Amino acid sequence: MVEPGLITAAALAAARPLIRAGVSTLEIDAAAEAAIVARGAEPNFKLVPGYRHTVCASVNDAVVHGIPGGRILEPGDIVSIDAGAQYQGWNGDSALTVVVPDPDRPDVVAEREQLSRITEGSLWAGIARLARAKHLNEVGDAIQSYIELEGQKVGHRYGILTDYIGHGIGKDMHEAPPVFNYRVKQKGPDVKPGLVVAIEPMVVTGSIDTYVDQDEWTVITRDGGMASHWEHSVAVHNGGVWVLTAEDGGAAGLAPFGVVPVPIA
Ligand code: MG
Ligand code: MG
Fold first, then answer.
1. By CB atoms within 10 Å of each CB, which of 12, 60, 170, 251 scores lowest?
2. CB-based contacts of 126: which residues, under 8 Å, 6+ apart?
3. What distance in angstroms lies between residue 116's CA and the mean position of ligand 1's atoms?
4. Residue 45: nearest ligand to its CA?
């Protein structure tokens, strides 16, 4: 799964510089698709029944599953791009969030960047816990604890979506087991070599109550709160963990947690 992971990373690397004012989400979709196809892979989102695009582009109060289209990004938008590639029958899945600069509204940008930074940090906290965990559901405990602690530091109570969660990944993009982004009573499956999961906290500034738009895909906060979504596909193997959808295997993101990812031999 190393190759589809790196191809997924390349798709997001192609999308990232296009997340700026004046660009449509459809253009971002095209750039991600070109990056995947150029490497002999296939956008696995197109394999999801009824979905016709390479990425999901979720803007502002859209949390996940936003459909790319003619919407032109504006200054201050907080944009989550989710993408995945299938290569030789194996899958990658990853997401990131970027805030479009807005010189006229530095306070709005700062708030949204804080949301994205804390969401990304919670993802790395979850991956770091996976590296040491006995049971999978320790990951959600680490994510929730991180969000709560960082929220306290900035005096804001963030919400973690519970209607949507992470998942196992392999020959299918979405497999068992479920990967919770919050504390649950059950311990979950043992963490052992061969486990590959997509961890993906979805965090909002307000209530976690959402609805699905008339387009039948886009998940939107009911209270209009802003949203961020970060995701990586992570492999547990004999030597440790390796973040498949990060060029460096997660070295930079895991460093603050004292975890060193181990390449898959
Ligand atoms: Mg995803
Ligand atoms: Mg996923």
1. 251
2. 139, 140, 142, 143, 146, 181, 199, 201
3. 16
4. 1
- Predicted confidence at residue 265, as pLDDT, reads 85
| Ligand index nearest the alpha carbon of residue 173 | 2
Please name the residue ranges forming H helices in the chain: 2-15, 25-38, 106-132, 138-154, 251-254
Q: Which two tokens stand for residue 175?
A: 């497999």
pLDDT tens digits for range 214-226: 999 999 999 999 9
Cα(95) to centroid(ligand 1), Å? 6
How sure is the predictor about 255, in pLDDT bands with cuts at 50, 70 and 90?
very high
* Residue carrying the six token digits 């095209």: 30
What is the DSSP annotation of 18-36? G-STT-BHHHHHHHHHHHH
At 20, the amino acid letter reads R
Q: How far is the CA of 107 from the centre of ligand 2 (A)?
A: 31
Query: Tokens in use for 195?
Result: 């486990």
Can you name the residues that pair with 179 across neighbouring β-strands? Answer: 166
Cα–Cα dist 103/84, whole Å:
32
Question: How many CB atoms are located within 10 Å of the residue 69 CB?
Answer: 13
Residues lining ion ligand 1 (Cβ < 5 A) are 82, 93, 95, 231
